[in-house]
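Q: Give me the 3D complex with S-adenosylmethionine.
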Amino acid sequence: MKKYYHAYNERYKKIHQEGLLWFSNKPTPEVINWVDYHHISLGENLCEIGCGEGRDALFLAKKGFNITAVDIAEEAIRKCRVLSAVKGLKIAWVVSDALQLCEKLSNNYNWIYSVGTLHMLIKDEDRRGFLNSVYSLLKPGGKFLLVNMGDGESERSTDLSTAFELQERGHMGTGRKFEVAGTSYRAVNWDNHIKELTDAGFVIDKMFNTENREYSKCMTVYLNKEEK
Ligand SMILES: C[S@@+](CC[C@H](N)C(=O)[O-])C[C@H]1O[C@@H](n2cnc3c(N)ncnc32)[C@H](O)[C@@H]1O
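A: Here is the predicted complex, encoded as structure tokens.
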């Protein structure tokens, strides 16, 4: 079992046992802006990679989009199923490793988005695996939104030998402190981000620094897969 899977799964379990969510229930502004930018019609099929507790998937499904949402953490998807049932929303929740999406998902998509997931991958080979996997899942002419933490200038990476140890973390919603498993994080600068994205075959439409409540400074990129 991959350590980053285990760490997030354990963190979700602990927080859910307390009757809380780790993330907020508010959607990501960058996702809303991307949907608006492309004038994506209600009823279109969108796929989210690394949905966590489903705040963006639930919001978009409520608006009227057809959502498939993937996360590697079983506890995240269990919680998402409960939340969508309570709200009476039909969403295809899938437990899958983002590096092997085509093994679990039988359809290809015109619209894929991912918030805060690539930045968890430390090794170049895993980041390449993530980007290649999304590229394969995207239809020719399809669009991909990528939002990850970083300011585009500084680079840093957590030490994988200690990244997943238990640590005290503040819960954003309540301010309470919890001892939860640490997770991994890698920030890349714009030059290296552009290189990894174009090496994977994507065409960059737009890229900008953004800031949101959940992650603070982010690097946001609108990507295209060229028509064959
Ligand atoms: C920082 S959280 C973001 C969750 C959600 N997108 C949000 O912003 O609320 C990263 C999520 O990516 C998931 N994740 C990490 N590695 C993954 C992988 N290889 N495949 C699928 N999901 C992964 C984690 O389980 C976690 O739920």
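A quick observation: The mean pLDDT is 94.
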